[in-house]
Write a structure and sequence with these properties.
Elements: E1 10-14, E2 25-30, E3 36-45, E4 51-60
Antiparallel strand pairs: 1-2, 2-3, 3-4
């Protein structure tokens, strides 16, 4: 059984594709209303040299999420008819 986040929970993992301005960790969080949002976590240092963590909740995750089954079940009939021939 796959891991399922409950409302109020989230997880973040090391950002392997990080550039200087990117978040140190990226992940997802489920808000109390049940909607899943992207999560960015930054390691920061204030002007006094104290380390702290800054978090930013981003846009809502649209489309398929870990908790939602796929609607098309991978069938050929579910593919869009955009093939040029």
């Amino acid at each position: 059984m796959a891991y399922e986040m409950k409302p109020g929970e989230g997880s973040a993992f090391i950002n392997e594709k990080k550039e200087d301005w990117h978040a140190d960790f990226r992940g997802k969080v489920v808000l109390p209303d049940g909607k899943t949002h992207y999560l960015d976590v930054y390691n920061k240092t204030d002007r006094n040299g104290n380390k702290f963590i800054r978090m930013k909740i981003g846009k809502e995750v649209m489309g398929r999420t870990e908790n939602a089954p796929s609607k098309d079940n991978g069938t050929v009939g579910a593919m869009k008819d955009d093939i040029p021939w």
